[in-house]
Write a structure and sequence with these properties.
Length: 481
């Protein structure tokens, strides 16, 4: 890099620091006011800001704009996603205490008090440029925080419009507008990195580069791991039900979700029948030569081609030159694979309605294939299974390196919380230490709180050494002291 380039980058970074500092100052002033709100007032703010998106007209306009500016997904599914994710989050937040005393444990002499973290910086991806910022904003506001959003460059226009709707609702309830802000456009790396350094907490969904940058910024951060979901179909599965749910999940919003199925691992006993059910549900199985053609188009210099990311299966087939009549009505594409690793790109995340299929001898073999897939990519995120054998489910929970095991459900809907399971509604999945993350939960309002604990004295409860070590001494013939 030349000296002039270095000077230019330094000047750009200094300018970004100043721009962001102004936003943070305004956010702190707004948050200082908001911190004095009662629980009732906070809950009204949350409902008001949620209405900015739940309002059907706003949702439609934002969904149409999101698809238009990013070129990812489809309008109808984004409308559904924005509505369901926000409605589900409100269900989770309803009645949750985030102001004042939230828990008393008299037998331990403890009182827990919810406190804000302050100003939250939130990085959001282009795949979900409305649902994700809405989710993070509502969680932040529930904890009496201010939030500054850092959208992807492609999603910044729709994020600006979303915040405009939110400001209208904040005005309606008399809350400070500066509780919700966005980095100035055009959003660039310098501003995003400055945000990471200046706020009190970073929450990052999107590229692993941004996650790593947030972790190294010096600011406490919650980042998520990569997805690459494998799902087992064992010999006890209801194949028709499994095919229906997998199809619904894999085709929803053209597979923009990191929680959509990327590989199926099917045991030999039901392999042919499962493939038949998947094809009946709208999948088209590629021949070996068609698979080669698709691979050449899907990856360019080792990276996913944006011409196929989150596109309809029919569009992917057209771009690839797959011209069988079956492709004209394809809902998703099926490719059979044996290999796993960097030399076998279909074993990784595809962010498109393309589903890789592996044949396993039995459940033990399916377990091994699933583990290898996760070791290659997506470790810590999640896996799924279609089964009526609870021992198989339990083994996945006990031994597979994932934070979520989704059982007999459409994975993309269930993994981020659904109305028929108990996971928190979220679009950000912690992957634990397996995925280089510091949490393993679905990101939710609890991560946006500080907890102060008042500790009072209780009756002394000090155990005798012999009470703790007696069994150990006797077992190993050790003389206690």
């Amino acid at each position: 890099m030349s000296n002039s380039d270095q000077v230019s980058r330094t000047e750009s970074a200094v300018t970004a620091e100043g721009r962001v500092a102004g936003l943070v100052d305004r956010a702190r002033a707004a948050q200082a006011i908001y911190e004095q709100y009662t629980q009732e007032q906070v809950d009204e703010v949350v409902i008001a800001v949620a209405w900015a998106l739940i309002n059907p007209e706003h949702n439609r306009v934002l969904s149409e704009r999101a698809v238009r500016v990013t070129g990812l997904g489809n309008v109808a599914d984004k409308i559904t996603k924005n509505h369901r994710k926000t409605l589900g989050l409100l269900r989770d937040l309803q009645g949750a205490k985030t102001v004042g005393v939230i828990r008393e444990i008299p037998e331990r002499g403890l009182v827990e008090i919810a406190r804000p973290v302050g100003v939250v910086g939130a990085i959001v991806p282009s795949t979900n440029p409305v649902a994700t910022p809405a989710n993070k904003t509502l969680n932040a506001l529930k904890g009496r925080n201010a939030v500054i959003l850092a959208p992807s460059p492609k999603g910044q226009d729709v994020c600006t419009q979303l915040i405009g709707y939110m400001h209208q609702e904040l005005d309606r309830v008399g809350a400070p507008r500066d509780l919700v802000q966005q980095l100035p456009t055009p959003v660039d790396k310098e501003s995003t990195y400055a945000l990471m350094r200046q706020v009190d907490l970073m929450v990052v969904t999107g590229s692993q580069n941004n996650v790593r940058s947030a972790y190294s910024s010096g600011t406490p951060a919650f980042g998520v791991g990569a997805g690459n979901v494998p799902v087992i179909i064992d010999d006890s599965a209801d194949l028709e039900d499994a095919a229906r749910k997998i199809t619904a999940s894999k085709t929803f919003d053209n597979a923009t979700s990191c929680s959509s199925e990327n590989s199926l691992v099917i045991v030999d006993q039901v392999y042919d029948a499962a493939l038949a059910a998947l094809q009946q549900a709208g999948g088209v199985l590629l021949s070996a030569s068609e698979k080669q053609k698709l691979e050449k188009v899907m990856w360019v210099d080792g990276s996913l081609n944006r011409q196929v990311i989150a596109k309809e299966a029919t569009e992917i087939a057209r771009v690839t030159g797959l011209d069988r009549d079956a492709f004209q009505a394809a809902r998703f594409l099926l490719v059979e694979e044996q290999g796993i690793g960097k030399d076998h790109p279909f074993s990784g995340e595809k962010l498109s309605p393309v589903l890789t299929v592996y044949r396993a001898y039995d459940f033990d073999d399916a377990f091994k294939v699933t583990r290898r897939l996760l070791d290659h990519q997506g470790k810590g995120h999640s896996c799924g299974i279609h089964t009526s054998n609870d021992a198989h489910v339990r083994r996945l929970g006990l031994e597979m390196p994932v934070c979520r095991v989704i059982v007999n459900q459409a994975h993309a809907f269930a993994n981020g919380g659904n109305f028929d399971n108990g996971l928190p509604f979220s679009l950000s999945m912690g992957c634990g230490t397996w995925g280089k993350n510091n949490f393993s939960d679905n990101l939710n309002y609890r991560q946006y709180l500080n907890i102060t604990r008042i500790a009072r004295t209780i009756p002394v409860n000090e155990p005798a050494t012999a009470d703790l070590f007696g069994d150990y001494w006797r077992k190993h013939d050790i003389a206690g002291s």
